[in-house]
Amino acid sequence: MKLQSITFYIILFAVQFTFAQHDKNIVTGEKIKIHSAILNEDRVCLLSLPELYNDSTNVKKTYPILILLDGSTYFKTASGIVHFMSSERNRNYFMPETIIVAIENVDRERDFTVTKLKTKRPNRMGGGKNFLNFIEKELIPFIDKNYRTAPTRTLVGHSLGGLLTLNSYMNENSIFDGYISIDPSIWWDEETMKAKVDSISPISLNKKLFIATANQGEANYERNKKRHDHLYDLMKEKSGEHLNIEIEYFEKENHRSVPLIAIYNGLKYINQEH
């Protein structure tokens, strides 16, 4: 794919804060619009650069990339977490300073699923492979070309986005190094997921995967936690003694509240030494 065919626009994405004597813009990120030939549409992403990215002392420093699905929903949350975990100002050093690329949604069912469900109404499900191709063959090369990136990449997704994250992890040709799958909708694709575990490559098993499970209540216990645990057990058996997968159950968090703590704990796991 020729990057010259990708249309690029940057619009400042500012948050307004009012101070006692001054009104100023605090810029928390940028919007970029990319035309995807693979998807045949424009896609908008929110971009967060490390705090000192443009500092004159850091002109040669490179940064890992975090690709965030459901970008509009989780951009500010993830930006705050990554800043807290990595900024020189905080001195936590849980992870390196990172460039966040948060992809805004167009059609979640189309983009986050790799199989179709039978429905009475027409649907556009099952476009997940195309969407991952857009990320890997158009979006990331564009970010690599226009920003100072390091060759380390993490994919983060919630719900159906968590399902797509798992599908990416199980693809031995995936260009990501770490994966955070937050309360993934395994019920959508359960049998296919089991088959993929059976044929999973050692290349995938050598990468880090964090799975977060929320408490969806007693009625959804069979549908959610047991399915997550079973998938984890299958991958654990396939991995043998060398396991790069962690699963965590958040009993006090539901499907909507779990992303905040899951992003934090997931990034700690992904970035800790073996």
Automatic annotation (TrEMBL):
Keywords: Hydrolase. GO terms for molecular function: hydrolase activity, acting on ester bonds. The keyword Hydrolase applies. PANTHER family: SIDEROPHORE TRIACETYLFUSARININE C ESTERASE, SIDEROPHORE-DEGRADING ESTERASE (EUROFUNG). Belongs to the esterase D family. This is Alpha/beta hydrolase. It comes from Aestuariibaculum suncheonense. The lineage of its organism: Bacteria, Pseudomonadati, Bacteroidota, Flavobacteriia, Flavobacteriales.
